[in-house]
Write a structure and sequence with these properties.
Layout (H helix, E strand, L loop, with lengths): L1 H9 L13 H18 L3 E7 L5 H8 L12 E3 L8 E5 L2 E2 L3 H10 L5 E5 L1 H4 L10 E3 L9 E3 L6 H16 L8
Parallel strand pairs: 1-2, 1-3, 3-5, 5-7
Antiparallel strand pairs: 4-6
Helix pairs in contact: 2-6
Length: 179
C-alpha cells in the first residue's frame, strides 16, 4: 500500500496538453462564427444548455467553452440561464422519462427562430444509454433538431465547428424557411 501511495505521489499527471491560445484552428473557427452571428443576428448568439439525462461528460466540454483556453465570449457566444433569452438549445444526453416534459417546455419557451443542437452520441441516439429502460429515446424523438454533433464527448472545437455549420446553413437562402 505504501509503495502504491509513493508511486502515485511522484507520478506525473496523465492529461493532454491544452491547446495554445494562438491555436490557428480555434481562432479561425471563432472568428468565422462571430462574423456569421453578427451578420445573421447583429448581436451575439445566446445558447441555453439543457441536460436531458446525460453522464455530464458533454456538459464538461460545453463548460470548457467558457474557460480561459477557448473563451467563446470573445467570439460573440453567450450562455443564458433562461430559454426565453436563447437562440440555440444545446441538448445533451438521451431524454429520460423524467426530463421529457422539461425539454418540451424548454423548447416551447425558446422564442422563434430557434435551433436545437443534439450534442454527443447519447443525444443523437446511438450512445451507451440509448436503449435504457429510463429513456424515451434521442432528442429527435422529443423535439425537432437542426444539427447533430456526435462524439463521446465532442471536443470544444467540434462544438464551435458545429455551431458555425449551423449558422452557415441557417444563413443560406434555401434554409431560411424551416420545415
Amino acid at each position: 500500500m505504501r509503495t502504491l501511495l509513493l508511486r502515485s505521489l511522484f507520478a506525473r499527471p496523465v492529461t493532454i496538453g491544452a491547446p495554445s491560445p494562438e491555436d490557428v484552428a480555434l481562432a479561425k473557427t471563432g472568428a468565422a462564427l462571430e462574423a456569421q452571428a453578427r451578420r445573421l443576428y447583429g448581436r451575439a448568439i445566446t445558447i441555453r444548455a439543457v441536460d436531458a439525462g446525460s453522464c455530464n461528460a458533454c456538459e464538461l466540454e460545453i463548460h470548457a467553452l467558457n474557460n480561459a483556453v477557448y473563451d467563446v465570449e470573445r467570439f460573440g457566444i453567450r450562455f443564458a440561464a433562461s430559454p426565453r433569452h436563447a437562440d440555440v438549445l444545446l441538448v445533451t444526453g438521451p431524454v429520460t422519462k423524467n426530463m421529457k416534459v422539461a425539454l418540451e417546455r424548454t423548447y416551447a419557451a425558446t422564442p422563434d427562430p430557434k435551433w436545437v443542437v443534439a450534442v454527443g452520441d447519447c443525444a443523437c441516439g446511438h450512445g451507451v444509454f440509448a436503449q435504457s429502460y429510463a429513456t424515451v429515446g434521442s432528442v429527435a424523438d422529443v423535439v425537432p433538431i437542426d444539427l447533430r454533433i456526435s462524439g463521446c464527448p465532442p471536443r470544444p472545437i467540434d462544438l464551435l465547428t458545429g455551431l458555425l455549420a449551423l449558422l452557415e446553413r441557417v444563413s443560406a437562402p434555401a434554409a431560411r424557411q424551416r420545415p
